[in-house]
């Protein structure tokens, strides 16, 4: 069960997954050992699944919204899209579209190739692509 301290630890690690435990402990007024054991438990329980980084890049980044046919396994389509090189994240969503994919590639032709591959799925009705012009990260 996650408590308020766990939530605060997670918030800090979301902003900087490399922040030393001793700094987190000082910020939260607890011991470094408490932070270490809490993070270990959160990881073992699957609450924290990975530690990652965000980079600033000169890549072409885009959001592709995908609308699929009714009575189609959305999870299967999303899983297939997530396997494409250049696909950073895939979400099943509510609304007009069923799937949203975040793309991070080095060129427009690579982006276009991913869009075309998605459109070739039998159950895809339509796609809508939005280029990402500027990124803002939470907590900064």
How would you describe the overall organization of this protein?
The chain is 39% helix and 21% strand. The chain has 140 residues and is of the alpha+beta class. It folds into two domains: 4-44, Winged helix-like DNA-binding domain superfamily/Winged helix DNA-binding domain (Arc Repressor Mutant, subunit A, Orthogonal Bundle), CATH 1.10.10.10; 60-131, Lrp/AsnC effector binding domain/regulation of amino acid metabolism (RAM) domain (Alpha-Beta Plaits). Strands 2-3-1-4 form a four-stranded antiparallel β-sheet, covered by helices on one side. A hairpin with a 6-residue loop joins strand 2 (87-92) and strand 3. The longest helix is centred in the first third of the chain and has 13 residues, at 32-44. The relative contact order is 0.16.
* Cα-based radius of gyration, to the nearest Å: 19 Å
Mind telling me the CATH superfamily name of the largest domain? Lrp/AsnC effector binding domain/regulation of amino acid metabolism (RAM) domain
CATH C-level of the largest domain: Alpha Beta
Number of strands: 4
What count of structural domains? 2
Q: Which sequence of SSEs, written as H and E, runs from N to C?
A: HHHEHEEHE
Q: Tell me about the largest β-sheet.
A: 4 strands, antiparallel
By DSSP (H or I, 4+ residues per run), the number of helices equals 5
pLDDT < 50 stretches? none
Helix content: 25-40%
Q: Please list the strands of the largest sheet in the order they lie side by side.
A: 2-3-1-4
Shape annotation: elongated
Q: Report, as a whole number of angstroms, the end-to-end distance.
A: 28 Å
Q: Which architecture of the largest domain does the CATH hierarchy give at level 2?
A: 2-Layer Sandwich
The computed structural class is: alpha+beta
Please indicate the percent range of residues in DSSP E strands (runs of 2 or more).
15-25%
Report the CATH topology name of the largest domain: Alpha-Beta Plaits
Average pLDDT score: 88
């Amino acid at each position: 069960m996650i408590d308020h301290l766990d939530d605060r630890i997670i918030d800090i690690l979301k902003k900087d997954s490399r922040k030393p435990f001793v700094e987190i402990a000082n910020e939260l007024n607890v011991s470094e050992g408490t932070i270490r054991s809490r993070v270990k438990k959160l990881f073992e329980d699957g609450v924290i699944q990975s530690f990652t980084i965000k980079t600033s890049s000169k890549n072409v980044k885009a959001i592709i919204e995908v609308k699929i046919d009714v009575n189609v396994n959305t999870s299967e389509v999303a899983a297939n899209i997530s396997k494409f090189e250049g696909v950073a994240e895939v979400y099943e969503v509510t609304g007009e579209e069923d799937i949203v994919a975040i793309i991070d590639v080095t060129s427009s032709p690579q982006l276009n190739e991913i869009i075309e591959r998605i459109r070739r799925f039998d159950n895809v009705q339509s796609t809508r692509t939005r280029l990402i012009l500027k990124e803002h990260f939470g907590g900064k």
